[in-house]
Amino acid sequence: MAPPQKRQREITAADIKLRTLDASSPQLLELINKRFGEQAELIRLTEQRILGELQERINNMSLEMQQLIGRVQQLEEEAAEVKSLKAKLMSMEANWESKLQVQANEAIAADLRIHGVPCMEGVNLNALFTTLHSGPACMEARP
Question: Is 43 left (phi over 0), alpha (psi -120 to 50) or beta?
Answer without folding.
Answer: alpha
